[in-house]
Amino acid sequence: MNAIITEEVEALLGQADFTGTLDWDGFAVMWGRMVRRIVLGDSARDDERVTEDLRRLRKRGNLSYLMPQNRRLRERFLGRLQEYVDRAEPGSLAAMVAQTPAPEDAQPVQQMPQWLFAFDAEAWATFRALSLAVAHPGAADEARAEMSQAPDLPYLRATVLESLRLWPTTPLVLRDTTAETRWRNGTLPAGTALVIFAPFCHRDDATLPEAHRFSPDLWMRDRDDSDWPLVPFSGGPGMCPGRNVVLLTSSLVLGELLNRRDLTAGKPLDTGHLPGTLSPFSSTFTVRRR
Ligand code: HEM
Hints:
This protein is mainly alpha-helical. The protein has helices at 2-19, 24-39, 48-61, 71-87, 93-99, 112-135, 139-147, 154-166, 198-202, 217-220, 243-260, and strands spanning 21-23, 172-176, 181-183, 186-188, 193-197, 261-265, 284-289. The chain has one domain: CATH 1.10.630.10.
């Protein structure tokens, strides 16, 4: 994964040097190539059709009760994923699927669409983390120092986690309670459906004085259940199983970008009180060789 990220970020920056700007469109092309190589294998780098097929299926899925199913498209997409599993290119997640024992009736390929689309959220989180690192004096230098001591990247990891705390990509977590729970204004019976609204906890300035500021320190120490809940990847047995892949790949992309160029934000962030939302799609950065 490290080698893939180095190559793809280098290609992206080659393009950015040409225009002097890094924007979402360029970043998203790089991201798609990186994700296909990591999940499906190196030969999938330019297989934009597989990404486009998934995009079309997801778009139809949003209207699933109104639209007829497009079985041909679905079969073509899943068939393509199976081809990559059969190819099992070394280092890819597809190779891990091929090597992992599974019962006869299991369909491991059916997991892979989620892996592919879940990387979208990571792309937004990474581009927002870049805005944070560029806006905060000293953050880029800290990241560069850390890159020279890889493989542990605690500061870069914390920067990505801050991006996810400030702007969670999964703001709602759903649960059914297994026991009676007591609240300030009453009691709920076991079996109650709950919506856990992550931003309510992540931005609670009554409990976290640093709620609206970039505070990587929140993540640089060990956290346990007695800490105020920060749940960008949820918690408990349903916690995102992809979280370490996310934090590894996101912090490497961020580290490579900061380490290789000087970046300046097109529009500065208000670092004293960070905004409640931040669109990655309109963020731009001026790029200069170091
Ligand atoms: C910024 C990126 C990501 C975030 C913030 C994130 C967060 C989450 C959250 C909050 C859940 C729901 C857990 C729950 O219901 O309690 C989840 C589920 C899941 N995530 Fe992620 N995720 C990300 C990326 C990924 C990636 C890249 C993968 C795979 C490579 C992945 C694999 C999964 C899977 C398989 C589940 C379902 C787990 C289950 O139902 O048991 N996620 N994720």
